[in-house]
Design goal:
single chain, 261 residues, alpha/beta, two-stranded antiparallel sheet, 10 helices, 10 strands, globular
């Protein structure tokens, strides 16, 4: 079984990785192509392209210009520990043993606009390049055209060695659009998390992000290899909803938390 997650805009490169384990991203040659293009953008270009503030634009122009190969543990950090935010707050990664991290290497991929399909312990350098960014490049008008089937091909390489050839999608729509579902060599299982209040059930983005991280943590730490066992997930008060689910689209639901005053 293979999991997919989105990256996060928030990143922490100040805190050292708690593990000596690291790997090198498989698709760095592709990343270099994008970096070469991004380095030609000035602050004004980047501000318009990404629709961000001037300060964020200045920061990312600097990031692109200082990005360099080769990646080492001195100038880069494992993705799992570099990303921070709602999704990654649900993954108790600081408690992971080396065995946990090695298991995650074989069962988790983080879909990145710059790096493609990342293993959790792949080294990355600071960046911001969302998958939806319409960065013109040698392969097309945007990043979806740039990656084409390349991310899907990498996922298929990992699916081929899984006990159960199931891809559990815990990524956002923006990032999973980089995958070609019809080209996957296995079953695609989409997971969503919903909140119920006053008889209405809906997805609330901030809660859904945290739940994706909690489910990732649940699957990795419990070494779940059979997709049916995912239905036992109960962190945060969620339970599997037979009524709201279909064969390949599973819904986990809970009463909407009361806002703290």
């Amino acid at each position: 079984m293979l999991l997919t997650l989105s990256p996060s805009k928030g990143q922490d490169f100040d805190t050292p990785s708690p593990s000596s384990i690291y790997s090198i991203p498989d698709q760095l040659n592709d990343s270099q192509i994008l970096i070469n293009k991004a380095k030609k953008l000035d602050i004004k270009d980047l501000k318009a392209l990404m629709d961000v503030s001037e300060n964020i634009s200045i920061l990312n122009v600097e990031r692109f210009n200082t990005w360099q190969l080769p990646f080492t543990s001195e100038n880069a950090k494992p993705a799992l520990f570099a990303f921070k935010g709602d999704v990654y707050s649900g993954i108790q990664k600081e408690k992971y043993s080396d065995d946990d991290l090695n298991y995650a290497q074989d069962h988790l991929r983080i879909l990145s606009g710059l790096y493609g399909a990342l293993r959790p312990m792949d080294l990355i350098q600071p960046y911001r390049l969302e998958m939806k960014t319409k960065l013109k490049n040698p392969r097309g008008e945007n990043l979806y055209q740039f990656w084409d089937e390349r991310i899907t091909d990498k996922l298929n390489e990992v699916l081929a060695i899984q006990k159960e050839k199931v891809l559990v999608n815990l990524a956002s729509n923006e990032y999973f659009k980089s995958v070609k579902p019809k080209k996957l060599d296995g079953r695609l299982l989409n997971i969503s998390f919903k909140e119920t209040k006053d008889g209405k059930t809906r997805v609330i983005a901030i809660f859904a992000k945290r739940a994706r991280g909690m489910m990732t943590d649940f699957i990795l730490r419990n070494r779940i290899e059979n997709s049916e066992d995912i239905k036992d997930f109960g962190a945060g008060g969620y339970t599997f909803s037979e009524q709201l689910s279909t064969e390949n689209n599973w819904v986990f639901e809970r009463p909407q938390p009361i806002k703290k005053k």
